[in-house]
Amino acid sequence: MGTYILKRIMSIIPVFLLATLLTTGMIHLSPVDPAEAYLTAAHIQPTDEILAQKRHEFGLDQPFLSQYVNSIIKICQLDFGISYVSNKPVWDEVTYRMPATIQLALGSIVIAVLVSVPLGFLAGIKKNSLIDHFSRFLSFFGASIPSFWLGYLLIFFFSVRLDLFPVEGIGTWQHLVLPSVTLALPLIAMYTRLLRASVLENLQEPYVLFARTRGINEKTIMAKHVLRIAISPMVTGLGMNLGKLLTGTIIVEAVFSWPGFGRYFIEAIFNRDIPVIQCYVLIAASLFIVSNLIVDLIQMYIDPRISRKEGHHR
């Protein structure tokens, strides 16, 4: 297992180099001149002399390979440049906003897991029951309703009409409830369907029959055998969505005025804040890589057969 983890960590390096190459090449492929974008954001009239000075300052007059190597060195030092808009280090801006995004992502994941695991499991072992019909309805509803509409509905009923939760902002657990529920509902729909289908499939596997013939308690079979294996597809989906949530949930952050990473990225696009955009792409790639690695490790713990398969391939 240690060799597998080391192998996966080493695979991060070429992905990181490729992401750096793309972000560096983005400057050359984009029709927007970074020097001109900086001067525009600073409300300075661009002239040929000032543009040449800024291009030299940003290193844009150097060969592409030199720019690429310099980008890697700076990124390793967590130096993503200066924001054109705020005139502050991009890394400081990101670390200021990232905790809000992490808080929102974890809140929605916790709600989704607490609801979808028991609901999907019970729907699978009690096929065509009332709870199974309810789970299918909830899955259909959660997958169909747009996030921005759900967010506004929750604000209308629970903030405007009932005055239970704040409309916008951040600070207390009450601020976290509505945006977390808005993000969690589509995840509940997805995970409930995945878990239900996986439970139904595993109930037909020979190991369930063998366990029953050995006289093992039915609850033990369901909890320690069926659920342990059936939850594997849900864990995979969880890891993919965790990376997505950590890179910023743009629509929900906009609806609830949540000062997160995704909203910061959208503002950077409108303002042509190229250092921020480059930083976002690299962080997004890193988060997806790390999320997938964590999911693989959890999968190996849940299903030891994966560990044996890895060892066999080696």
UniProtKB/TrEMBL annotation:
- What's a Pfam family in this record? BPD_transp_1
Please report the record's description of how this protein sits within the membrane.
Answer: Multi-pass membrane protein
The ABC transmembrane type-1 domain covers which part of the protein?
Answer: 98-299
Determine if Membrane is one of this entry's keywords: yes
Tell me the domain of life. Bacteria
| TM helices/strands, residue ranges | 12-29, 102-125, 137-160, 172-191, 281-302
Spell out the Gene3D superfamilies in the cross-references.
MetI-like
UniProt cross-references to CDD domains, sorted A to Z: TM_PBP2 (cd06261)
What are the alphabetically sorted keywords of the record? Answer: Cell membrane, Ion transport, Membrane, Nickel, Nickel transport, Transmembrane, Transmembrane helix, Transport
Subcellular location field? Cell membrane
Q: How does it assemble?
A: The complex is composed of two ATP-binding proteins (NikD and NikE), two transmembrane proteins (NikB and NikC) and a solute-binding protein (NikA).
The text of the family note is: Belongs to the binding-protein-dependent transport system permease family. OppBC subfamily.
Q: What is this protein called?
A: Nickel import system permease protein NikB
